[in-house]
Amino acid sequence: MASDDGFVIVESELTPSPETSPEPSPEEKNVDGRTYEEFINDKTPMETFQINGLRYYVKNGVSAEKVRTMMKAHGQCEICSSRARKYCTLLGKTKNGEEIHPAVFLRNIRGPKDGGCPDCCLFNIRKEVEKMNKPSNFKNPRIFVVREDTFPPVIDGEDPKTGLPYEHVTIFPDAYTEKEIADKFEPLIHKYIGTVDPRLSSLLEPAGIRTVQKIMDRVSELQRPEHWSSVLEWIKHLHSLLERPRYKKGYNNLSAWGKLHFKVAAITSGRNESDVHKDFHQAEGIVNVITNSESIEEALRKMDEISNPETYMRSQFNRAIRKNNVTSKNGFGLAWDGKFTDDFDIHVQPITPNGPHIYYGVKNKKIPCFAGQGYSAGDVTYLLDFDANAGSRIEANPCENVSIDIHRGREAVVDVYVNLYTRRTRGVDMPFTVFHRQDGCETVEIERVWPSTMPPGSKMLIGRFTIYNKDLLPVEMSEKASRRAKALNPKWEKSMGNPKSIIPNLDDFAAEREVTWDKWTGLRPSVPEFTPDVNNAFMNMTVSNNGKKKKKYACEYEDSKPPTTFDGLLEKLKEGKHRITINHRDYTPGYIAKPITNEVVVRGNGYVNCHYKNKFANPVDPLDVMRSGELGNARFNENWFNTRIYSCAEIVSFVKSNGVWFGVVNDGRLPSGTEEGFPLSGGFRATHLKADFHDLRDRWEFCDVNVKPEVQDGTPMIGTFLTTPTIQLTFDDKPLTLKM
Q1: Which of 208, 270, 352, 510 is the most exposed place for a label (fewest CB within 10 A)?
Q2: Are the C-beta atoms of residues 335 and 389 closer than 8 Å to each other?
Q3: Does the CA dihedral 612-614-620-626 come out positive or negative?
Q4: Any idea what DSSP says for residue 321?
Q5: What residues contact residue 444 under an 8 Å CB cut-off, 6+ apart?
Q6: Where in the chain are the domains?
């Protein structure tokens, strides 16, 4: 049965088969003794399955050795026994109501002595084929694509004595897959048939279906709906398949046989390039969103984060670095949108020390260089870690990377180019991103565009860069600065001593500077009190129903309304028990530090606000962010919490520190530092020093990155500074957007 969209629904299930072939009907008994030549040239077609133009059988994953041995004993023919081994586990389509086993090999055997076998040899082989392929033996199935040249002809070779042709068993399918369709779908089937199940299982759970449908209803609210249009259309198509009779019980309730055909339908629909199913890969983002969001609003928010072009390439590149187990922290990467199937290549030309061009043609090279710190020799190693879209191998998320490692040397100077090796997209400009990775520094992203008019092979220079070996670059002080530091050392020892930095706890702040509230763990209705006296219980109902329902005053209605401003929220928190949570991935982390010295050397209360504007960069004053309006890219991750946080972090208090409101998170901790993307600062900012100590500012700032803050007992001041004009949070399980 064909549908309008090109799908063919496979009606038959793998039905139990009798242990033996059915008894021949009276009409068939007269052919019970067909000769071998009559049997072997019986071209009764064996029906194939068809989905989206793909004709196929199902290959059962059982051993075929017994059938091969039986066929070898039949006529001592190696060709027939080899074909028997290949084809005896193929299962085809049967018509509804037919009591015929779906195995296609020797299905045209009509009786015990058919095929010129007085000892019932071929008939017994057919019985063994049915037995080995019974439903209880159905395991590890594969798709066997039927092409025009899949099955060899009957005649292969000739008898040297008689000159007569040798005739061998084969299969005559009812139809073949067109070459174009087979070439398109067969690589996809082989690649995804064993891996698509978990993703389909998540997408096609009843709750998953409802969630995706709600997202589709609100897709216009997304910032970049076109980014998701194709994959959502693919998922919508999968939903429509489940409405058909064959699949109405739901994907996760289908038998292995039913799931197999559904997977073929899924793989042969949607966007694909070569052997890459793009919608399948993009659906990973949908699965992550629908299984890790507590509301549709949160799901839409996460979809916008994923599709954000400012972070999309970076996330794609970082995933490739992890996937390919790249350990080097220096080098140059390249990423471009998977919708462009073109083959870009990154090229690195070593300048100092000089060496050969590093690209796909020269993937690995070690070049001697000048050594450092007394070493007699050093070297620089270049390695192309991974390449993308070479030849016909098209990737959904194309990335490349060249690692550069300096051993005993000080630095390497290189020119970096990008080349379009193969153009497949015509008439449009193609953007790409180059990543400059330097150990100890934030990764630099360089955006470029390959114009539609620029021919392939015209290498585009990105720039000249220097990679440093940070381990061999000690910080050195000038002679003048050295004399000055020695002269000021007595003052430093007296006023500063050996400075340290702490993260104060909530109790250290004055009451007028903080807002706390009684916490609740859940707003559940209380259990009604048990009344043993049934008469009293009944009369109590009459009393409660006699009076008219009391009307609310305007102020009571006003009190019941959710707050719309942050000040209004603080008023609400003064009474009752409440719970406030935030989606931590929408907020920027930070903490409040306090340098500890022998004397009071800073202005004010000594607290320093440390706000992460950008990942891999030192924290800044949140007031600077509020003035500039530039929010940056740093966000909370799991490294900021002692326990695993799935989507919401609880706020336990609000504190006003140096003019900025700060939300203290529950169970917060400090990350380990740079390796997790958040270099720690001790809060030693020169702008906070009193005028009498400005001459010590250089040494003071040196402490900022070299003295790590220590977390104190209690609730540490770790959380988020509220730097935006509006904030989003959940107040007693109700989402709010508040003006600051």
Answers
A1: 510
A2: no
A3: negative
A4: H
A5: 435, 436, 438
A6: 29-177, 181-307, 311-472, 499-740
CB distance 225 to 219 below 8 Å: yes
Measured CA to CA, the distance from residue 123 to residue 121 in angstroms comes to: 5
Q: What is the average pLDDT value for the chain, to the nearest integer?
A: 84
* Closest listed residue to residue 437, CA positions, set 320, 302, 562: 320
pTM value > 0.85: no
Q: What is the pLDDT of residues 172-185, one digit of tens each?
A: 999 999 999 999 99
- Residue indicated by tokens 């990377």: 401
Q: How far is CA 443 from CA 310, 344, 412, 461, in A?
A: 14, 21, 17, 19
Please count the helices (runs of H) and the strands (runs of E) in the chain.
18, 30
Residues 267, 315: Cα–Cα separation, whole Å? 26
Q: Which two tokens mark 38?
A: 């009559």
Give the residue from 83, 107, 101 showing the smallest Cα distance to 174.
107
Q: Is 69 helix (H, G, I), strand (E, B) or coil?
A: helix
Angle at 553 between CA 552 and CA 559, to 5 degrees: 90
Nearest alpha-carbon partner for 125 in 83, 95, 154: 83
DSSP string, 364-424: EEEEEE-B-TT-S-EEEEEEEEE--S-TT---SS-EEEEEEEEESB-EEEEEEEEEEEE--
Q: Using CA atoms, how far apart are residues 302 and 299, in angstroms rounded to an integer?
A: 5
Q: Sort 734 into a burial class: Cβ within 10 Å, 0-12 / 13-18 / 19+.
A: exposed
The residue to which tokens 């009752």 are assigned: 576
Rounded CA Rg of the chain: 36
> pLDDT tens digits for 148-167?
999 999 999 988 989 999 99
Residue with tokens 């970049």: 224
CA angle (46, 50, 55) in 5-degree steps = 65
Return the DSSP state at 589: -
Instruction: Name the pLDDT band for 610 (thresholds 50, 70, 90).
Output: very high
Quote the tokens at residue 406: 């300096």
DSSP lists the bridge partners of residue 641 as 668
Pairing of strands 514-515, 444-450: unpaired
**What is the spatial distance between Cα 345 and Cα 401, in angstroms, rounded to a whole number?**
9
By three-state DSSP, how is residue 446 classified?
strand
Please, are residues 431 and 460 in contact by the beta-carbon 8 Å criterion?
A: no
Beta carbons of 476 and 570 less than 8 angstroms apart: no
Lookup: tokens for 211 = 């969630």
CB 408 within 8 A of CB 372: yes
- Residue 225 structure tokens: 């709906």
Sequence-distant (6+) residues with CB within 8 A of 678 are 589, 612, 615, 616, 619, 634, 639, 671
Position of tokens 């009459």? 542
DSSP H or E stretch at residue 740? none
Query: Taking residues 421-429, what's their average pLDDT?
Result: 90
Q: Which helix (H) or strand (E) holds 494?
A: helix 479-495
* CB-count exposure of residue 187 (10 Å: 0-12, 13-18, 19+): middle
Is the pLDDT reported for residue 654 higher than 70? yes
- Spatial separation of the C-alpha atoms in residues 682 and 131, rounded to whole Å: 75
